[in-house]
Amino acid sequence: MSRIKATFTLDENVIAELETFSKGLSKKKSHIIETALSIYFDMMDSRLAEKMLKDVESGKEELVDAEKVYKDLGIN
């Protein structure tokens, strides 16, 4: 996987905590941020799935049978 350099702004308290954990764990700040975001995205993925399920159950969204999608796309 390629690495991309990114620049962003964080609250000074978050930066201070990041520095503390980085030194305490002897880990690069980028490693800590990447790990934290990965955990966060996993959690958000679960919440998104729950929201989608509620939307289907409430009738806000509709499920489409995979066979119909394949047929419409000419994949079958």
Helix/strand class: mainly alpha
Order of helices and strands: HHH
Q: Tell me, what's the shape?
A: elongated
Strand content: under 5%
Low-pLDDT sequence parts: none
Give the CA-CA distance, first to last residue: 33 Å
Annotation, overall tally of beta strands: 0
> What is the number of domains?
1
- The count of helical stretches stands at 3
Helix content: 55-70%
Sheet of most strands:
none
Summarize the structure.
The protein has 76 residues and is mostly helical. The protein has helices at 12-25, 29-57, 66-73.
Task: Give the key terms.
3 helices; 76 residues; mainly alpha
Structure characterization notes:
There is one protein chain. By secondary structure, the chain is mainly α. Helices cover 67% and strands 0% of the residues. The protein has three helices and no strands. It starts with 11 loop residues before the first helix and ends with a helix.
